[in-house]
Design goal:
The complex is a heterodimer. Chain A is α/β, with parallel strands linked by helices. Chain A has a single domain, classed as Carbamate kinase (3-Layer(aba) Sandwich), CATH 3.40.1160. Chain A is built from 8 helices and 8 strands. Chain A starts with a strand and ends with a strand. Chain B is of the alpha/beta class. In chain B, β1, α2 and β2 form a beta-alpha-beta unit. In chain B, α1 packs across α5. In chain B, about 50% of the residues are buried. The chains are: A alpha/beta, B alpha/beta. Chains A and B meet through α3, α4, β3 and α5 of A and α3, α4, β3 and α5 of B.
Chain lengths: ~250, ~300
């Protein structure tokens, strides 16, 4: 696999207090650097703008956060998030980063799609790492309900990626809910055509639903894995191993 | 911040300043990205806040992403189009704004800035406008300065034809788009905050030209600056000065200024040179006119 879209779930980028998990970011950057050294083209789908915004304001996460408060936090945080990426990637690892902010309606307009496609290709060709996020400030959807997994799939289709890697804090897809059922077994491989039949017990699990939705629209195979696993991207991309679930 | 405290914070705001800066202000003579302008603006905003406290709110519309990207790309710049350069440069532009607003002395607080990248479509419906309004309201209530720019990477109309080897004329078209956007943003911001008790509203278009002239000052040393000009006066220039005034993107500034002044006669509109020292404090604190003021009649 040559061109890879990597999506990092917000659980990985957020600490318990709702702030940005910079240690994770640093670990991730090292891994991406390794892929770059091996001439892989990577597009990063990130979240974390709201978390970064909370941290800027030194504001703890609280249950009553409204949508607009989150959007304001995203406006504050998106640039500090990019600053952190810039610091770690460019200053410490000599990889240029570019920011692309999209919302779902951008994919409905053919001209915009063409444009975004051109920009992404150009950046990849120049060895720049595109860091894509939802434009949360203007996005009309509830931030929570909006799936970065789908964004990853759409971007992957747009640039003809060879693989999509979805990293979160669970190891993959399970036959039951691993949080509540200790007997739940990890599914190591599942065909897209079998996804219809895939009905996890806890079908309300939004995360699982998002991943299945993404798989339905994605043209490339999807790897789902635990982002905290050591060397997870190296394993998948360079060693072609499967530490989680492969949706082929 | 909960909704009640947000509302009471918003109600304290009586002065609203919308500042649009052209990308030329963010570059030095050798076209390198330069932070002097941003630092000057930050210092003036700090000064104004010191005097007016929570009663003043700022919105900045900032160009400069492509310029920052071009500078960063170095020898690669010819191989990238302006949209790719904007993607590369926008984070740097924001980083630079953020750093300019960091407290300069012990105990001086940082002023926070927030990035909002918008396109025309974001203002296309009532629901979308309300969405942006509420987000901006949250920011202003917290004392954060929203910095708006066009989302160049996804924006189709304006930058589409700007290739790496674009002519000056094409680049001016890009600048034009951002002036139009600033007018749209200003109009929306004023509309959005119509229910606030604003007693002073300012819309300031800063570029590297001193103001509105009777003809293009570039190439016409006898051009005369209007310290004050009415909407009708602007229209007269507009009508007969296409060719001469076209260069420098001045007609779009005129267009933006006209749009705001005719819809909001109580908003004071200035076209001026952003390199003029303390132009912001002069206007807001001292009631001076460091460029051209657009008046209703």
């Amino acid at each position: 696999m040559q061109r890879i879209v990597v999506k990092i779930g917000s659980q990985l980028l957020t600490r318990e207090n709702g702030w940005l998990n910079i240690e994770f970011l640093e670990k991730l950057v090292k891994e991406i650097k390794r892929l770059h050294t091996n001439k892989k083209e990577v597009i990063l789908i990130t979240s974390g703008a709201v978390a970064a915004g909370r941290e800027e304001l030194k504001q703890k996460i609280h249950p009553g956060e409204t949508l607009h408060e989150k959007q304001a936090l995203a406006a504050i945080g998106q640039s500090s998030l990019m600053r952190k990426y810039h610091h770690i990637f460019t200053k410490e690892n000599d990889i240029h980063v570019a920011q692309i902010l999209l919302q779902l309606h951008d994919f409905e307009n053919l001209d915009t799609v063409q444009n975004t496609h051109n920009v992404l290709k150009l950046l990849l060709r120049r060895g720049v790492l595109p860091v894509v996020n939802e434009n949360e400030v203007t996005s009309m959807d509830e931030i929570k309900a909006l799936s970065k997994d789908r964004l990853a799939a759409k971007i992957a289709n747009l640039v003809g990626a060879d693989a999509i890697v979805l990293l979160s804090d669970v190891a993959g897809l399970f036959d039951a809910n691993p949080h509540t059922n200790p007997k739940a077994k990890l599914i190591s491989e599942i065909q897209k055509s079998d996804l219809k039949k895939f009905r996890p017990k806890d079908a309300k699990d939004q995360e699982v639903k998002d991943k299945i939705e993404a798989a339905k629209i994605a043209e490339a195979p999807i790897w789902i894995a635990d982002g905290n696993l050591k060397g997870v991207l190296t394993q998948i991309v360079l060693q072609e191993e499967n530490p989680g679930t492969l949706i082929a | 911040m909960n909704i009640d405290s947000q509302q009471s914070a918003l109600e304290k705001i009586t002065t609203l300043v919308v500042l649009k800066n052209g990308s030329n202000l963010l570059m030095d003579d050798e076209n390198h990205f330069n932070r002097n302008y941003q630092e000057a603006i930050a210092a003036q905003i700090r000064e104004i806040r010191k005097q007016l406290g929570e009663t003043v709110a700022f919105v900045i519309v900032s160009s400069g992403a492509v310029a920052a990207g071009r500078d960063r790309a170095g020898k690669n710049r010819r191989l990238m189009n302006d949209q790719a350069l904007a993607a590369l440069g926008q984070p740097l532009l924001m980083k630079s704004w953020d750093e300019a607003f960091i407290g300069q002395t012990e105990g001086e607080e940082d002023i926070l800035v927030a990035q909002a990248l918008v396109t025309k479509i974001d203002f296309a419906s009532k629901r979308r406008r309300k969405n942006i309004r509420d987000t901006l309201a949250s920011l202003l209530a917290t004392g954060v300065i929203p910095i708006l720019n066009e989302n160049d990477t996804v924006c189709v109309e304006e930058l589409k034809y700007v290739k790496a080897d674009a002519t000056q004329e094409t680049r001016e078209k890009t600048a034009m788009a951002n002036d139009a956007l600033s007018a749209m943003v200003t109009e929306e911001v004023l509309k959005m905050f119509a229910e606030l008790n604003l007693t002073q509203k300012f819309f300031i278009l800063a570029s590297d030209v001193d103001g509105v002239y009777d003809k293009n000052p570039r190439g016409n040393p006898d051009a005369i600056l209007y310290p004050e000009i009415s909407i009708a006066g602007l229209e007269a220039i507009d009508a007969n000065g296409k060719g001469e005034n076209g260069a420098g993107g001045m007609e779009t500034k005129i267009g933006a200024a006209k749009t705001i002044k005719s819809s909001y006669p109580d908003c004071r509109v200035f076209v001026l040179n952003g390199n003029k020292p303390n132009f912001l404090t002069k206007i807001v604190l001292e009631g001076e006119n460091p460029g051209s003021e657009i008046v209703a009649a």
